Amino acid sequence: MPSRSARSILTAAVALLCWSASGCATDAGRGLSDPPSQTVVAPVTASPQVGAATATLAPPAVSPAGSWIFLPATPLLSVERLTGTIEPDGTFDMAFPSVDGDGVAHGVDARLRQPVEHARALFAADLFEDESADVEPSHLFGGGIVSLLDTRVVSVEYDLTVEWGGAASGDQWVDAVVVDLADGSLVGPLDVFYDDSPWLETLARVATADLAARFGENVLWPDGLSVEESNFEHLALSAEGVILLFDRYQIGPGVLGAPRVSVPWSDIGEFVDPNGPVGHLVAG
Q: Which residues span the domain enclosing 209?
C-alpha cells in the first residue's frame, strides 16, 4: 500500500475503482430487494423524455497539480425522464441528469442513467413476484439531483420512492454516483482519499455526531454507522464537502427515512489526495 508521500508525487493517471451501490430498504416484506437470477418477463413500456438544457455552472479555479484531465468548460446540464408501465399494475416516473459539452465522454450519461434503470428492474422483479390480485397500482418515482458539476467530475444523489398498491406505507431507496467527465469511469473513495489515511473513521465519527444531534443518540443503530466501507457506500461530493446517504432502516427505525449527512472539507479535506479527481476542491 503506497504511503501518503509516495502517492502525492504520482504523475500517472490514478486507477479508478468502480464504486456503486444498490442498497435497498424493505417494509413489511415488500421492498427493492435484489432480483432473482431468473429473467423478469413482465412487459415493460418506457418512454424517455428529454428536458431542455438548463443553467451552466461557472468553471472552478483548479489546481494544475496531478495528471487528471479537466474539460475546457463546465458541461451543460439537462434533465431526462424514464417513464412507463409494468403490466399489469406498476408505473414508474423517474428523472435523471444528462450532461453535454466539449470533451465529455460518451459513457457519462449511461452512468447517470444506470441507478434509475436498476431501480426499475428491481421494481419490476418485486411486482412480478407479487401474487396478490385486485390491488391498486404501485408507483416508483423520484430521481437524481446533481450535487457537483465542474470541469472534472459530476456527482449525483438519487432518492427514489415506491408506493405499493394497497399497502399502508412505501419504501425508499437511495444511491450516489461520482463520474469522471473525461473518460466516463466511476470515481470511488480510494480515488479521492489517501488509502493510508483515516478517511473512513473520520466520516463515521462526523456522521455519528451529526445524526445523534438530530435524532438522539439512543435512537441510532450503531451497526449501521460502524467503520466499514459498506456503511458509507452512498457517497457523493459537493463544492462544500462529502455527502453521505444512508438507506432507510440502516442507522435507525423507518421513521428516520433515508438520512443525509454533509461532511465539510474542513473535517475531511486533509485526507484528500491533491493530485486526485477532486483535489482542486480543497486546494489552498
A: 188-284
